[in-house]
Write a structure and sequence with these properties.
Length: 270
């Protein structure tokens, strides 16, 4: 069996998966995408005192402002997730969550930690894809209204930005050692993230990355196996839900396609 035949069969499997799941895949994708915000919002409630104390001691901002910070995080994240999952005011919810990401990036000094910064940017990529989906729904309401050029429309640019930011998550998973397994994993992973970024064989590459991330997530981030009083429990839990959110973004790529600014779209013109 040739390479082309194998690739065609793999694409057929991906297309079949999309046909079977097309009615509920976007809902699963949205739930996965907001999962880290849901978990963090709930954590703000149960760890209110610890979070407030951390912000107050780090920034010397006073007890009142520290509590306001925790309250904004709690209400902003839980409220944004409810609006996204209920499909109400999705654009405002996404902008609220963008604000939460930005605020936490500064407040928790994530700006100076490349690994966590890339993961936060990947979350932002998922939100861009949600905005693109929302614009697609709005466009379908005004189907007969003239619009911008096909490839330069805001929806397609949002999809491009979302794809590029999503792949930053995988940069944090690369292992820089000389073992054969790590080298193969890095080569395959890099090839897949490049395919998603440029929009070539996008659905197949994104679906493969979903499977890869699921395996990594349930293997290495199994926080339920660690006693809750140990710091590693919270660390793995944080990693687990952030990875789940990126999986949600990739599932949106599978459901929506790569958009107009992609090699897959160019292939149709050729």
């Amino acid at each position: 069996m040739g390479h082309g035949d194998l690739m065609s069969q793999a694409e057929d499997v991906a297309d079949q998966f999309l046909r079977v799941t097309k009615h509920y895949l976007p809902h699963v994708a949205r739930l996965c995408l907001v999962s880290t915000f849901l978990e963090d919002g709930v954590r703000m409630w149960f760890q209110w005192a610890e979070q407030s104390e951390y912000i107050e001691s780090t920034w010397s901002c006073g007890h009142f402002i520290a509590n306001v910070f925790v309250l904004i995080n709690l209400l902003g994240q839980l409220g944004g997730c409810v609006l996204i999952l209920s499909r109400n005011f999705v654009q405002y919810a996404c902008f609220t969550l963008f604000g939460i990401i930005g605020m936490q990036t500064v407040a928790y000094s994530i700006l100076w930690d490349p690994k966590f910064l890339m993961r936060n940017l990947a979350l932002g990529g998922g939100l861009l894809l949600l905005l693109a989906e929302c614009r697609g729904e709005a466009r379908s309401v005004f189907a007969g209204v003239p619009s911008l050029g096909h490839q330069s429309s805001p929806k397609h640019l949002l999809q491009l930005g979302g794809r590029v930011l999503l792949v930053l998550m995988f940069m944090t998973l690369l292992h820089f050692d000389l073992s054969l397994f790590s080298i193969l994993q890095n080569l395959v992973g890099t090839a897949l993230i490049v395919l998603v970024a440029v929009g070539f064989k996008t659905k197949l590459a994104a679906l493969t990355l979903v499977v890869w991330l699921l395996v990594i997530n349930f293997t290495f981030n199994a926080f339920w196996n660690i006693p809750s009083y140990k710091p590693m429990h919270d660390f793995l839990k944080y990693d687990f839900f952030q990875t789940t959110s990126v999986i949600g973004g990739l599932l949106l790529v599978v459901a929506l396609g790569p958009g107009g600014v992609s090699m897959d779209e160019k292939k149709k013109e050729w």
